[in-house]
Structures are given as structure tokens and as C-alpha cells.
Design goal:
Length: 325
């Protein structure tokens, strides 16, 4: 029987509101799946969630909640929407760690609601860089972030690292696992892959930086030799405009914002953050904690809906109406 695990993210963010907004969808999924919410007790789920403390209690389809006991009752009472703290950061991280433990023991796909790296670090979790990196460490594998949309997807070659360190991390990419991740990406196999340059105008033949010639071109050659139809390095400022955008189904971006800014502008809340390199599916909404609107009833659950579609096997279909003719 399939299991869906959901982490609460930062309880002071929009996560609790997303769960409330998705009540009907979650209830529908619970007729076929065991849906288990791992939470700290700050904003406990509604009455239709059955609180459990033993995984054997989740063997049948249904809505279940699992409390981490990471916070004291005093700490729980002190938290409120829109006011993150070291305590809410600890709650978010404990939910993630407990979900990973449960996944290893009982299996299942994973949906992670947004957390704040800043507040997890302030809570004392040294070296925390995000869900993708934590999953790599916990499962002793190389993971890759894929921003998956209805029309096209973005795979950033580096994730949560300072911009000045991007060339260093580009040199450290493990090509065999990277190639395997690209092959496993749920994108159209009938289109070429765009590899974006690091520098403006993809380096202008070495006149604006040497990274394209020294780092990227050898990588592209290796990908091509592995049988992947990769084109580049391409100037990133024009790659996402028409007609280029319709030509490709996957864009390889050198750094986080290079790919995620255009992705979020075009795909909006229809996109999800998907982790490649795991033997189960992990997805997350393509937005953050939104502390500024938390508790105000303004949270949009659209991306969370798509996450639930992914982990329940309902893959998105391209939206032909959005294409430019």
C-alpha cells in the first residue's frame, strides 16, 4: 500500500494554511493512500487526521498525523504565524529528519512544505543548506534539484552556494551521476537540452570570462558523448525567450537564480521542486515560507496541489494554451 509523507515545514510560515486549503484533496487521496503528516504540534491538523505513534497504525489508507515531540509545550505556545524563530526552525528541521527516518523504515513518497534555511541554521543545525542537500547526506547519494513545470524544466548545476563559489562547484560535478539524473528527469525526450553559459553572452568566446571554455564546454562534450542531445553553452539572457523556450524541454542552469527566476515567472505556481537521485519521489512547492502573509488567509495552495498530484502518480500535462503560436 502506497504511503505519502508530508513534513510541516516552518510552522510559522504558510504550511499550515496550505494543509487547510488542501483538505478536500488530501481527503480524496486518503481513500487510496496512507497520508502521514509529520508535525511539531504547533498548529495540529484538523480532527479528520488520526494521531498515531506506531507505523503499524498507518497500514491502511487514511489521514494520519505523527507528532515529533521536538518542542516543549511552552515553546509551542510561544509560536504564531508570521513570527519565525530558532524554535520554529528547530520544529521544521525535526519534521524533516523524522520524515526521513520513517521513509527509510516504511517507505513512501515525500512532500516537504517550505522551511527557512536561516532559521534552521539559527536553531543550531550546522551546515544546513536545504532539503536537496540534506537528502543527499541522509541517503548517501548525489541529489539534483529539478524545477519541474508543465512546459519545461530547469536543473541548476549548483544550488544553495554563494555566487562567487559557483565556478568551484561546477568543477566538482560528478558527471556519471549527473548524466543519470538527466536521463531520469521527467521531461520530454524528444527535445534537445539547453546548457546555459555562466557569463554574459556565454563568455563571448572567452572575452568575458573563461569558464565556458575551461569548465562548461568539456562538460557539454561529455554529456554529448553519453548520448544526450545537449546544445550550448547558450547565452542565458535569450534562452528563455521565444522561440528558444519552445525548442527545449530542459534547461541546465549554472546557478540557482539563473534558472529559477525565469522558471517561476513562466511556470508560476504550477511548478514543483523535485529531487533527482533518490529511489523515491520527493517534491516541494516552488515557493518559500512567505512569513509576510502567514496567518492572513492569503496563501495560494496551487503548487502544493501539484506536489500532491506528483506523489500520487498524476503527472502534469503540458498546457498547450500557454504556448505562443
Amino acid at each position: 500500500m502506497d504511503r505519502i509523507l508530508i513534513t510541516e515545514g516552518d510552522p510559522c510560515g504558510v504550511g499550515p494554511e496550505l494543509l487547510t486549503a488542501a483538505k478536500a484533496k488530501l481527503k480524496s487521496l486518503a481513500t487510496k493512500f496512507s497520508v502521514l503528516l509529520i508535525h511539531s504540534g504547533v498548529f495540529p491538523p484538523a480532527k479528520n487526521w488520526k494521531e498515531v505513534s506506531d507505523l503499524s497504525q498507518t497500514s491502511a489508507p487514511g489521514l494520519y498525523s505523527w507528532k515529533t515531540h521536538a518542542l516543549t509545550s511552552e515553546q509551542i505556545a510561544g509560536l504564531k504565524p508570521g513570527s519565525p524563530s530558532e524554535v520554529s526552525g528547530r520544529a521544521a528541521y525535526s519534521s524533516l529528519v523524522e520524515a526521513i527516518r520513517i521513509q527509510k523504515e516504511a517507505g513512501g513518497n515525500l512532500v516537504t512544505l517550505p522551511l527557512s534555511k536561516e532559521w534552521v541554521l539559527k536553531a543550531g543545525v550546522k551546515g544546513f543548506r536545504g532539503h536537496t542537500e540534506t537528502l543527499a547526506e541522509q541517503y548517501d547519494t548525489r541529489t539534483y534539484m529539478l524545477m519541474a513545470g508543465r512546459e519545461w524544466s530547469v536543473l541548476p548545476l549548483t544550488t544553495h552556494v554563494p555566487l562567487v563559489e559557483v565556478p568551484f562547484y561546477l568543477k566538482k560535478i560528478h558527471l556519471p551521476s549527473f548524466i543519470s539524473a538527466i536521463r531520469s528527469a521527467p521531461v520530454s525526450k524528444g527535445k534537445p537540452i539547453a546548457f546555459l553559459g555562466l557569463n554574459p553572452h556565454a563568455g563571448e568566446g572567452g572575452k568575458i570570462g573563461k569558464e565556458e571554455k575551461e569548465i562548461l564546454e568539456p562538460m557539454i562534450s561529455s554529456l554529448q558523448k553519453a548520448g544526450l542531445e545537449v546544445i550550448g553553452p547558450l547565452s542565458a539572457d535569450g534562452a528563455f525567450a521565444e522561440p528558444s523556450r519552445s525548442r527545449f524541454s530542459l534547461f541546465l542552469a549554472c546557478y540557482h537564480d539563473q534558472g529559477l527566476i525565469p522558471f517561476k515567472m513562466w511556470e508560476g505556481k504550477h511548478g514543483v521542486n523535485l529531487t533527482l537521485g533518490l529511489d523515491f519521489l520527493r517534491v516541494s512547492p516552488d515557493h518559500g515560507t512567505a512569513f509576510d502573509i502567514a496567518g492572513k488567509g492569503k496563501a495560494d495552495p496551487e503548487s502544493f496541489y501539484h506536489c500532491l498530484d506528483w506523489v500520487s502518480g498524476r503527472l502534469p500535462k503540458p498546457d498547450q494554451s500557454r504556448r505562443h503560436k
